Amino acid sequence: MSAAEVISEDRDLATEWPIELYETLKSAGISQMSYVPDAGHSTLIRLFSADPDVVTNVLTTEEEGIAIAAGAWLGGKRGVVLMQSSGVGNCINMLSLPVHARIPLLVLVTMRGEWAEFNPWQVPMGQATESALKAIGVTVLRAESGPDLVETVAQAATMAFDADQQIAVLIGQRLLGRKKW
Amino acid sequence: MTSSTMDRRAAVKKLLDARGDALVVTGLGSPSYDVHAAGDRDDNYYLWGAMGGAALVGLGLAQAQPGRQVMVITGDGEQLMAFGALATISVARPRNLDVIVLDNQHFGETGMQASHTGRGIAFDKVASSCGFAEAAELRTLDEVDSLCGRLRESAEGPRLFVLKISAENLPRSLPPRDAVEVKNRFRRHLGLATC
């Protein structure tokens, strides 16, 4: 990713949404990012990791990111947690912390198990992701195109950090495309 | 092999008397009661749930407040649920995070069932293997006195100390259960906006 790409004014959000998403999150005041990697998050992970103004944490399991983001908010910083839908199941009990304490939470979830999925093991958690998040009290938003995703995350950040809500934005597998082997 | 243990309330009181302006996060169950028993304060954040989250809340807080020392006080059972957290904390390498594991080798809240730490799992060794800057096991209150002095020295990275405590259920000293209020007073203490 070159600097010229990052500052490009004329973006095709269908393919360049990760760069726009990075700038959107920066504009929302995000200064901490924690992640379990997913191919769909790879550009965001690379951009945040190269940003000296953002603290990044690589996690051993997704629920760690929920606790870290809560601690960051207690200390006055805004965090975002990146994970794949398979990781949502790992987070459920830890989500009682932001839900009960009304601590802002912004999670971006790349979806598996819902569109051109070749791996049947991804389907159960992929299909359960939205209802599991709703069951524990997280508000779920969803985007199926690049422009829609950027707009959804921008307003989700407002809901999370200005209204103390716990928000997960699901990034549709249709948007991410077929996994290539 | 030595098997002496110390009184948990006395040990925690010593740590907190020497905390200076350190921010404190507590793990659910008895560690929350121990910290509350030593005196309720706005710069304590008590967990009543989210098992496995204490040290990681501490990490996020330490990263957000790099100028402040953060002390996490939790139990062996709570930390066992977040074994991988020690890897994450070590890689993050905060220089202002101390994790205190009050280790009675049992799940005290649920009927005193034996935990892993009495069967060969030693958190100080795990933390050392992960790359913590400092880690040790303490068995006496005299050792806690020396630790209080060491904690005031600057660290090169995260530190973890295991305090071997007696397995007993003391009278509960209950922190507030309203997590929103505890959050708001903690943030107000730091001069941050509340909701």
Description:
The complex is a heterodimer of chains A (181) and B (195). Chain A has a single domain (28-176), classed as Thiamin diphosphate (ThDP)-binding fold, Pyr/PP domains (Rossmann fold, 3-Layer(aba) Sandwich). Chain A is 48% helix and 19% strand. Chain A contains nine helices and six strands. Chain A has helices spanning 3-7, 13-27, 42-49, 63-74, 85-88, 96-101, 123-136, 146-163, 173-176; strands at residues 30-35, 55-58, 78-84, 105-110, 139-143, 166-171. In chain A, strands 2-1-3-4-6-5 form a six-stranded parallel sheet, sandwiched between helices. In chain A, helix 2 (13-27) runs parallel beside helix 3 and helix 2 (13-27) packs parallel to helix 8. Chain A is globular and about 40 Å long. The two termini of chain A are 22 Å apart. Mean pLDDT of chain A is 94; it is low at 1-5. In chain B, helix 7 links the parallel strand 7 and strand 8 (159-164). In chain B, the strands form two sheets. A six-stranded parallel sheet of chain B has the order 2-1-3-4-8-7, with helices on both faces. In chain B, 37% of the residues lie in helices and 18% in strands. Chain B has a single domain, classed as Rossmann fold, CATH 3.40.50.970. In chain B, helix 1 runs parallel beside helix 7. Chain B is α/β, with parallel strands linked by helices and 195 residues long. The model of chain B has no long low-confidence stretch (mean pLDDT 96). The longest helix of chain B has 11 residues, at 54-64. The interface between A and B is medium-sized, with 31 and 37 residues.
